[in-house]
């Protein structure tokens, strides 16, 4: 096999761009049949271009660009069958950064917008209560509590089969987008209800399509991001929920105030119509903006798909795919047998019971001063959630940097407990408002909960999908119970409500500590297993491999080191 030299004679003068390509690559290439095919496919695209070699170049099948920090003399020309760069090299870091950036810029804005609309639609009934919903539909306080809780009767159990289905289907983008459109339609229909039975029915049915989104999106993100990247992206997703409490309150204030009585329709009905229509539009666009799975995402190149699969396999020490025998039902059975899933489920139930004030937040801000109008109460509800969004993002960023989970989750519950103590101690307007900032910041911990589940139960994907659905589905029973703990007759102090929530967060703290110790013990067992293997013949094999590769024994061991759980 002859090596192709950069100064080989050609039968015709070469255009500058072809000469640059050959000068850059051919010293490392050898002339064989594969190279001939490669150059035959590649050079025709370069012949069509007059762009100088220092400018970004785009071809039909290649994305050619030069970055300041890219490897020297390396154009990002990716053929479909090009090998994945070796782990740990500058070139591998470069192509991974580019892949993650592509995902971030397309996926994160989409899921944030969906989550904003998800919680705006879900909590619209809370806002509508301030503008005559109860009076127009003839609702009592008990009716209102049932309307809030009935959503979770369908929302909680539907998450488990939904996530199992999501792991089985090939196009999660279509599935999630269709579910978004469905709950937008049901939300819009809520504005047309005329009595208690009508609003109860729409609230019950809206829980079915909504069940697909949050646990499904966390699972989808776990199919693309490594365990050190997942926390921040999940927090960005959850920031949509926190932002919705701020933005939703401002949007509702504008609709309720500006459209009250327009065309003879009450403002709270306009609220459902407008927010539902926006959600339907967002869901339609999500079908082509969201990714599917690494092997079949349409807007990824074949090289990017293989890279996405390789980086997850390197992150966990095995391929991120199910075996032929790993059916959705088997994944559910594996999750049910894992004691961590039960502990996570109970912990999340107690946590969401402690944080259930979210469904009553506009009501709580209205208690700061009995003279506050509906608009003022809604405007005051926004700043605590803006603060919580910032806290959530910073907390998740630091969790990714450190790989720590427990204190980044439980630590914020302690802040909520401090807020409850302030609320129990005073009715002073300033003091109570400060306590609401502390209460809202507790959702920075919840944003990390399913991330921790994904980190603690990584493989196989069928088990991970079922575990996420179980934990979030069972955990939302806390929201169902919380619907009955903030009773109107306990206001405006709500001392009983705060005491119940405080106790629930103490239980969550204890259970999360138990999970942490359990994971530490499992990591120690993995360490012991590796040491036991190295004391036998495997050590000699690793030493021989290290000599052949020209690396030290310690470096070879680091490459062989298996998966470790984050805690």
TrEMBL record:
| Location of the Major facilitator superfamily (MFS) profile domain | 107-524
**Subcellular location(s) of the protein:** Membrane
One Pfam match, by short name? MFS_1
Kindly give the PROSITE patterns that the UniProt entry links to this protein: MFS
* TM region positions: 174-192, 204-224, 236-258, 270-290, 341-364, 376-397, 409-427, 433-453, 465-486, 498-515
Report the membrane topology from the UniProt record. Multi-pass membrane protein
Disordered, as annotated region: 46-70
Query: Which InterPro entries does the UniProt entry name for this protein?
Result: MFS, MFS_dom, MFS_trans_sf
In its UniProt record, a GO molecular function of this protein is:
transmembrane transporter activity
Q: Which UniProt keywords apply?
A: Membrane, Transmembrane, Transmembrane helix, Transport
**Where along the chain is composition biased (Basic and acidic residues)?**
58-70
The name this protein goes by in its record: Major facilitator superfamily (MFS) profile domain-containing protein
What is any one of the record's Gene Ontology cellular component terms? membrane
